[in-house]
Amino acid sequence: MADEIAWERLYEEATRVRERAHVPYSRFPVGAAVLYADGSVVAGCNVENATYGLTVCAERNALAAGVAQGRKQPVAVAVVANPEAPVPPCGMCRQVMAEFAGPNLPVRSRSPSGAEARYTLGELLPHAFTKDFL
Q1: What strand order describes the sheet that includes 30-36?
Q2: What does the alpha-carbon distance between residue 25 and residue 73 come to, in Å, rounded to a whole number?
Q3: Tens of pLDDT along 1-11?
Q4: Which of 127, 129, 69 is nearest to 96 (CA)?
Q5: What predicted TM-score, i.e. pTM, was given to this entire model?
Q6: CA–CA separation, 104 vs 53, rounded Å?
Q7: Active-site residue flag, 12
């Protein structure tokens, strides 16, 4: 499945939206693009806040925008951030991904120079807290 995904399209969307990130404090712009089962792509960027705890990551913004558009079945997530080494999603983003997808969700991260990391959600969050525990 991951080989059939148009990863370049996802990276292009993540790169495009990263330019809109609101990062006046960290100067660490991140873009994310989520591919949904219906073929649509929803992108999001990180939005910082002077009260740091209110900052929202790119991945969570993309997933929330997808929900607002009626989409709930992500099939792939791509992340682009500025460091030379690819940056994986934070723990909070991993948990939010687990709300909508299973452990086989492919997640990829790329740096502007093209360095890439490939994961599954299960590798990133091996013991996710899910609705099965409720």
Answers
A1: 41-45, 30-36, 74-81, 106-110, 116-120
A2: 33
A3: 556 899 999 99
A4: 129
A5: 0.95
A6: 29
A7: no
